[in-house]
Structures are given as C-alpha cells and as structure tokens.
Design a protein that fits this description.
Blueprint: H1 3-6, E1 20-22, H2 24-30, E2 38-44, H3 48-58, E3 62-67, E4 72-77, E5 80-86, H4 92-96, E6 107-109, H5 110-114, H6 121-128, H7 135-140, E7 143-144, H8 149-154, H9 157-169, E8 172-173, H10 175-184, H11 193-205, H12 209-218, H13 233-249, H14 254-257, E9 260-262, E10 265-266, H15 267-276, H16 290-311, H17 315-325, H18 329-338, H19 343-354, H20 369-374, H21 382-396, H22 403-414
Parallel strand pairs: 2-5, 7-8
Antiparallel strand pairs: 1-2, 1-6, 3-4, 4-5, 9-10
C-alpha cells in the first residue's frame, strides 16, 4: 500500500467500485495540507449506509446513521471519521453541483487512488480528479467561489462557512460570491444556535480567525446573532495581538487558552467573544454552556474593576479580586491589554496568578474552622466564616504568619 493510503484507517479494497472521495480531504491533498485527524467524505451511487456498516463491523469502529432519508452514515475511528453518503442526482457531477464552493466540489475515485504510486501522486492524480467546476483552478488562485447561489440559500450555514474557510486556508472570497453571501445573510437567523456557535468556534480558534470575523461583521453577516450596537470592534481587533504578547512573555498561559470549556470549544473562543462584546446578554442567543456563560459574565463584570486596580491596589484588594476571578483571570488580563492598558502594569498580576505559592493569589490558610471550634470554643455560626476571612486578609497584608499568630489575632477581635 502506498504511503498516501497508510494514513487511512481502513483498506480501500473494502469499498465497492465506484466510491468517490470528495470535499475537504481532496481539497487539502491538492494543497499539500495534512491533519492528524482525518475527516473523510465518500459518495457512493448505492448502498452507502450498508457499506459504512460493513466497514465499521470489520474494523470494530463506531457507527451511526446521520440521515436515514438521505442515506448518510458515519464511521468513527480513533484517528478520524468517515461519512458515507448516497449520491444525490443522476450522476456524480450532479451531486458535486449541489455543494457549497467549487474547491469542495472535486472528487477522486478511491480505486484510482489505490493504483497511484505515492512518489508520483501529485502528477498522476491530477488527471484522475473529477473537477466539473474548476475547483483546482480556484485552489491555485487561492480563491473561494460558489458553485451556485441556490446551494448557499439551501443551507445558510454555508454563508458563515465561507468566511471560516477563508481564514482556514488563507484564501480570498471571490467578489460575486461575497455579494451573494451578503445577500443571503438574513437566512442565517433560521439556523440552529448550536450550529452557528460551532462554526464561530472554528473561526475564532484559527490564527487569523479574528480578521475574518471582522470581515463577516463588516459585511453584516452576523447581525442577527451579534447585533452591532453591542460590539466593541476596536478591542476585538487587538485581541489576537494581545494574546500573542501574553503567550510570548508567559508561555505557560497556553494551557489556559487551550482549556476545554464545552465539548471541543476552548477558552480562547470565549476570551475572544468577551473581547468582541460589551454585553454578555447580547450573546444569549448562541446558547452558550453554563461554564462558557459563567466565564463570559465574569470576565465582562470584573474587567472594569481590574482596570481601576491596575493604577493602585492594596494586597487586600488584590486578594479579594483574585478570589472572585481566579478561574478566568488571564482572560481579564488579556482584555485589559487589548483595551490599551500597559503590559508592565498587567504583568505582575499574571506572575502572581501563575505562581501557585503566591501569598496573595493562593494564600494557604493558617487555621481552619475546626480550630476555632475546638481551641477557642466558638459555636458554629456564620461568625466563623467572617473570622476566617479576616484572618486571611491579615495574612495577605503580612500582619500574621503562623497559626499561633492567627489564633492570637482572632482572640484580639473577640475580646473587643
């Protein structure tokens, strides 16, 4: 088997002839792009679901029918997924003619791939591609061009996907196609929130996704989902650079920005959404998860307070601020930087957050409620919590440094 085929999780000899590879893998193969996780799409003239089920059974992979009416099934492997779809229309060309963009409407018969030697694959495969809409020409021109306007209207999420793929590939959207995307943008409001949210997450996860997000907003593609009156475009335009600065100075923050908050959505997506909007309520239509909403509300709520504290703050004020924001503090820091505040003032706060032994961000309790109960005979009540908090504040202010000093401190409060 050639090295091209070694990346696939099953043997193409198990496929009936003809079976066609289409979509992203074919496009990326032409562009010499590779991904560790395979996302394969196959078209079969008949028995698509049965073929998928047989593959799943033979290779002990996951299997699910995605659309029984249209005969689409998915096989899930450790390193990727393979979708098998029944050909739509009377021919392969008719099926390809229903796709979104010409660069995604290129097919390759799988048994042709079997016969191709990897060393000469690019030369040999060029003649094997089925490309009725000159998608290869678009790929060479770094251009995204629609197959037909009605295809975009049929599934309006393709409108947003055009901007996402422009960011993903570093392409430009062809002028007429962009006009059609803008024309059909109001149809996006009919799409389920989860699908829109997922597409936005893909876009914002990309290195230059923010640039194309601004392009989409400028074209009013997202007006029904992100009303312009609630947006802070000046701050959002600087968020990518601010994140880069923080990661350059504090590489360990990569763990924070790559933290998964919901499914395959990462913290950096919520950070960028927070930078984009002035109102957490404005994003309620996206149906964010509880964790995402908690982060978004907290970041926007405490950002103004942090900006004030940057100018002048006591250890007590810093401690109290960290207690409220510890979970998502770097997000607040990067929004402050994107808002134009000096890195030199923000940096010491991040150093505290990154140091698990920092006495202000992570103070170690000198005493517990049990000590107050047992050694001082204080009856269980909310008073215990108040005393412990006062002790913690005295600790971060450097007034007490040991258990004995903490007990003496509490005795002095009680005796008053």
């Amino acid at each position: 088997m050639s090295s091209i085929l070694q990346q696939f999780p099953f043997d193409f000899n198990d496929l009936p002839a003809p079976t066609y590879l289409v979509g992203g893998w074919v496009r990326d193969r032409i562009l010499n792009r590779q991904s560790k996780y395979l996302d394969l799409d196959f078209i079969l003239p008949e028995k698509a679901v049965e073929t998928a089920q047989a593959i799943a059974r033979k290779y002990e992979a996951g299997f699910v029918v995605l659309d029984a009416e249209r005969q689409i099934a998915r096989v899930v492997f450790k390193n990727g997924t393979a979708d098998f779809a029944q050909q739509m229309g009377g021919s392969l060309e008719a099926d390809l003619g229903r796709r979104d963009f010409c660069m995604n409407a290129i097919a390759l018969e799988c048994h042709q791939l079997l016969m191709t030697d990897d060393q000469d694959s690019k030369l040999d495969l060029r003649s094997a591609y089925i490309d009725p809409f000159d998608g290869i020409g678009d790929l060479e021109a770094h251009r995204i061009k629609m197959v037909a306007p009605e295809n975009l209207a049929e599934d309006p999420l393709r409108i947003l996907r055009g901007y996402r793929q422009a960011a993903q590939l570093g392409f430009e959207i062809e002028s007429l196609t962009r006009q059609v995307l803008i024309k059909f943008a109001p149809k996006l409001k009919s799409i389920a929130a989860e699908r829109v949210k997922t597409e936005l997450a893909y876009l914002l996860s990309m290195r230059n996704g923010s640039q194309w997000m601004l392009e989409a907003i400028g074209d009013r593609i997202l007006e029904d989902w992100l009303p312009s009156k609630h947006l802070n475009l000046e701050r959002f335009a600087k968020i990518e650079g601010a994140i880069t600065i923080l990661l350059t100075k504090f590489p360990n923050l990569e763990l924070f920005f790559s933290k998964q908050l919901a499914g395959d959505r990462y913290a950096q997506v919520i950070v960028k959404l927070a930078a984009l909007t002035n109102s957490a309520n404005a994003l309620e239509t996206l149906g964010l998860s509880r964790a995402e909403q908690r982060w978004l509300v907290g970041i926007l709520r405490y950002l103004p307070q942090f900006i004030v504290l940057l100018e002048n703050s006591s250890p007590k004020e810093q401690y109290k601020f960290f207690q409220h924001t510890l979970e998502y503090f770097p997000a607040i820091a990067v929004l402050a930087l994107a808002s134009g505040h000096e890195f030199e003032k923000i940096s010491p706060w991040l150093e505290r957050w990154l140091n698990p032994h920092d006495a202000i961000a992570y103070p170690i309790a000198l005493i517990t409620g049990d000590v107050l109960l047992q050694e001082l005979g204080i009856a269980p009540s909310p008073k215990i919590g108040e005393l412990l908090e006062l002790t913690k504040i005295a600790q971060v202010e450097g007034k007490i440094k040991s258990k004995e000093e903490a007990i003496a401190f509490i005795k002095s409060i009680i005796s008053k």
